[in-house]
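Researcher: Good morning. I'm working through a list of sequences from a screen, and I'd like to move beyond sequence-only analysis. For each chain I'm collecting a predicted structure so we can compare shapes side by side. This is the next one on the list. No need for commentary yet; just the structure.
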Amino acid sequence: MKQTTPAAASQQARNQDARTAREPVSRVQGPQQSDQAQAGPQSNPAPVQPDSLQGSQQGSQQDSPPPIIQVRNLEKTYSTARGALTLFQGLDLEIQAGEMVAIVGQSGAGKSTLLHILGALDAPTAGSVHCASVNVARLSERQAAEFRNREIGYVWQFHYLLPEFTARENVAMPLMARGLRKPEALEAAANWLREVGLEDRGDHRPGELSGGEQQRVALARALVNNPRLLLADEPTGDLDAATAGLVFDLIERLHATHGLTSILVTHNLDLAARCTRTLRLEAGRLETGRRVETGKQEARGPEAGRPESGRLEPGGRDGGTAAG
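Model: Good morning. Structure tokens for this chain:
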């Protein structure tokens, strides 16, 4: 019988420790593995690796979480009287959960179209669009509607509130569309109005609210279903500079406190610079990770920026283009 030298036994133990370090943390070792780990002379134990080294070995083997949005080879082509108009060709995009990403670019570059495709409001000509683990490019119209109501909150440049209903009723609409009884839906809506500082405006109709208040109601409506994704298309585009900064403050706070992944289309580079990343859409492609220069505006949009001070007070009469 071949005898094992102390040096060989020590090497065997080190090899076993290395194999053990590469095992997933959640795996439970069985009796056989425990017996093998005890092999070798007791007088020559394998050297214990530092915690930092063990952590690096384990971490290198663990896959990073998949992105919540993953776009591959996206193409979008429209048929026009002058021929085919291609907005995107071979566009790729990855966004991790918890990011707040701004998309900037000139008018007509396709920013809103990209947002519509990500939110299952429009379909690509080719490519895959995985959003919240669902390939939205393959959803039927009914499936897309269910997906939007469950996973996505939308905020547009115009609030699109129903004028004949109160602010509380407008916020409750998505809940009632999912089948929640009206009393419960109105109670949840009241809580969300309190979240955006408008608890005392619940019985007001949109025409009785200022532009900033209307947009805050629209934001509450977008989040009342507790979606994972917030998609905002020029959410401050109709607001004056001071109100735009305050509404963006609110978006940032809700993004953080509710664990959202947010994508904002904007022409305001100062606000875009406050996001996790800023992507520029140009010539049908996204320039990823590009830093935008602050203090400037895109081709259109108000001269919006973050005010030096101020916050949204409950029921405050923030500015905007609407009457009130």
